[in-house]
Amino acid sequence: MRKILFGIIITLLLLLFYQYWTDRKEEQKAILQGSVLIQEQLANVGKLIVTEGHFSEVFTYQDQRSVFGEYLTFDKKALAVVEAEVQVVYDLSSLEYELDAAQKRLRIQYVPKAELKIFPEVTYYDVEQSVFNPFTGADYNKIQQQAKKSIEAKLQGSDLQKNAQNRLLSELSKFY
Predict the structure, then answer these.
(1) What is residue 29's DSSP assignment?
(2) What is the rounded CA–CA span in Å between residue 48 and residue 46?
(3) CA atoms of 59 and 144, how far apart (whole Å)
(4) Are 121 and 144 in contact (CB under 8 A)?
(5) For burial by CB atoms within 10 Å, which of 9, 55, 152, 173 has the most?
(6) H-helix or E-strand containing 157?
(7) Which DSSP category does 158 fall into?
């Protein structure tokens, strides 16, 4: 009886040691995988952000997969709230100017076009999907691209770029 009890205790200790050892290896593996940083490109820039805006939009996405014509359909839809930070940026490194040191004058000859930077943050609500038509990563990317295009289209009709141009002239006049 003692030999059986001693065998069970040793077996339990070996199992606990094995479990501890494998869990420890998994933790180390997770730590190593999470600490990879990829540096693709660093560049020095001379850009001036003249206007910043924050926009919110409610976005509805629907997709339908038909089987046997229109008789059997599998729908998926999502309600997303898009909050975007928008910046109007001028690249001052491509600014062309002439400096007259004798008369202490600066003549700006060319001002580059404004760049519109949109940084959307999408939060998904009420995602409904079918087993035969599930959401994929491509769907989420498509929603984000459509939301960005929608915000960009709305910005074209707004006064944001006019305001940015006035702000640029105001900032450049400080040089004088």
Answers:
(1) H
(2) 7
(3) 10
(4) no
(5) 55
(6) none
(7) S
